[in-house]
């Protein structure tokens, strides 16, 4: 899998660092891992939330063609695990966008939108997703503010930079339980069918939230995959992790190695089998690197990665779609201009890279690098570390020395705890996987998919569609594709509802 150069450049200009205070308190991690065993079981988790869980509606505003409710409730995770989260995180805030009049009396679709990294408050999801979906397809929207974001951000936290690794797990536990509260509220109001979606981190949180609803549910995870472990150990985000701090804590406190490490299970993901399959299939014919295609069993629309540079004009946003979107604030406009400038530089860079790779010498060089990496991986697979990790980690990206066993062990621990709390294999399978449409970027540098279980293998029947760009490019240019997938999934739900 090739990472988008735009993803790498965009991440490199950001100076923010995550987890600057380390792993989190050992006792908190142990409590979270024990609780994961409960919320990963649909029956146990669903029964934690009373159907009449108390919700407070603070505001009800009616506009010309839609209505906005705003409210709050106590996070159920604070009830289940007291004193594990900062005070600001304990109150969940939400908005609900409804039509002034439903198009059909027996069909009142509602979709929950969860936030991606850096998506604070409500306005982005309300204006880019909820209002267009309401206008185009009559789909109502729920917007849940993420823990550690917006009004739930701790006072000493800078922007979106979570202080501890454990904060990610608190966020996930909160969103899973808080989503159930909103789903139950919708059912009490006679609304449905229900769905959930999100971009990037929000896409993975949406996947987790859908696992515990005991009825068929629309799920559209965008720019996420079957686990979040690769985000922090392989992708471009790994460069934003203070590994020296994490390594120091890990080796200075025996609790991490002697107790917590034994509580987590790293998912094998069949990476070693994938390496053997690659060698068997391509050892005799690796001159043509275009053979490296995704498996043909993948359903949904598939774009050719080679076409991205040559077809950039076709990837530009539809002017009519742009007119439908509200104006951004000045900070977002500056970010947009920065990304546009990077995109232009990236186009020229990619063209020269493609020309070089398409030449015979470029193919030979690439083939030698791939063969060497695979031979090395297979030779090392007998060691305990590589059996657990299952693939060669990008120490050059992390800024670490590959010879350091201590470095590897800290990264191995990171992958272990991330797999424990985020790998979809550790959670219940959604009731109806045919209502799942996932959107992925072919060159996603933030969410690597190499050596990771395919989403359709974890959830048979799910559809996966691909957009020919990287993570940043997909987020900026393909909002319409995300909305189209949501509309398609709700149409499937409507057909099943009418046929039942």
TrEMBL record:
Name of the protein this chain belongs to: Protein ABHD18 isoform X3
Chain intervals for the UniProt region annotation (Disordered): 303-326
Biased composition (Basic and acidic residues): 315-326
One Pfam match: ABHD18
Gene3D superfamilies referenced in this protein's UniProt entry, alphabetically: alpha/beta hydrolase
Natural source organism: Thrips palmi (Melon thrips)
Higher taxonomy: Eukaryota, Metazoa, Ecdysozoa, Arthropoda, Hexapoda
Transmembrane segments: none
């Amino acid at each position: 899998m090739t990472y988008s150069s735009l993803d790498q450049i965009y991440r490199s200009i950001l100076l923010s660092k995550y987890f600057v205070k380390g792993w989190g308190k050992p006792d908190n991690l142990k409590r979270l891992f024990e609780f994961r065993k409960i919320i990963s079981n649909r029956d146990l988790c669903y029964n934690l939330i009373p159907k009449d869980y108390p919700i407070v509606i603070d505001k009800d505003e009616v506009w010309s063609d839609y209505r906005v409710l705003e409210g709050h409730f106590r996070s159920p995770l604070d009830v289940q695990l007291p004193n594990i989260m900062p005070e600001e995180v304990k109150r969940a805030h939400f908005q609900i966008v409804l039509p002034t009049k439903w198009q059909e009396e027996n069909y009142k679709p509602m979709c929950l939108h969860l936030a991606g990294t850096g998506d604070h408050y409500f306005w982005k999801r309300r204006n880019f997703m909820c209002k267009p979906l309401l206008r185009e397809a009559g789909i109502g929207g729920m917007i849940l503010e993420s823990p550690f974001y917006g009004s739930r951000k701790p006072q000493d936290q800078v922007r979106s930079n979570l202080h501890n690794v454990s904060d990610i797990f608190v966020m996930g536990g909160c969103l899973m339980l808080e989503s159930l509260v909103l789903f139950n509220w919708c059912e009490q109001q006679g609304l449905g069918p229900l769905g959930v979606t999100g971009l990037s981190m929000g896409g993975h949180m949406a996947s987790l939230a859908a696992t515990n609803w005991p009825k068929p549910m629309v799920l559209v995870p965008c720019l996420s995959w079957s686990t979040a472990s690769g985000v922090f150990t392989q992708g471009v985000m790994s460069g934003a992790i203070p590994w020296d701090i994490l390594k120091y804590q890990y080796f200075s406190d025996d609790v991490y190695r002697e107790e917590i490490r034994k509580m987590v299970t790293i998912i094998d993901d069949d990476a070693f089998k994938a390496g053997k399959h690659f060698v068997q299939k391509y050892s005799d014919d690796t001159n043509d690197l275009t053979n490296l295609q995704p498996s043909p069993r993948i359903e949904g629309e598939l774009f050719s990665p080679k076409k991205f540079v040559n077809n950039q004009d076709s990837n530009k946003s539809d002017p009519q779609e742009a007119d439908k979107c509200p104006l951004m604030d000045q900070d977002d406009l500056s970010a947009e201009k920065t990304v546009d400038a990077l995109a232009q530089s990236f186009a020229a860079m990619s063209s020269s890279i493609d020309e070089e790779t398409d030449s015979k010498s470029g193919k030979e060089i690439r083939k030698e690098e791939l063969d060497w990496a695979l031979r090395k991986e297979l030779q090392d697979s007998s060691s305990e570390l590589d059996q657990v990790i299952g693939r060669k980690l990008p120490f050059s990206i992390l800024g670490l020395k590959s010879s350091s066993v201590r470095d590897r062990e800290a990264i191995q621990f990171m992958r272990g705890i991330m797999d424990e709390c985020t790998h979809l294999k550790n959670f219940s399978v959604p009731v109806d996987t045919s209502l799942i449409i996932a959107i992925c970027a072919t060159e996603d540098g933030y969410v690597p998919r190499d050596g990771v279980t395919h989403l359709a293998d974890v959830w048979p029947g799910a559809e996966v569609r691909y957009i020919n760009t990287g993570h940043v490019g997909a987020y900026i240019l393909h909002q319409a594709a995300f909305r189209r997938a949501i509309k398609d999934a709700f149409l499937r739900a409507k057909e099943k509802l009418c046929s039942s």
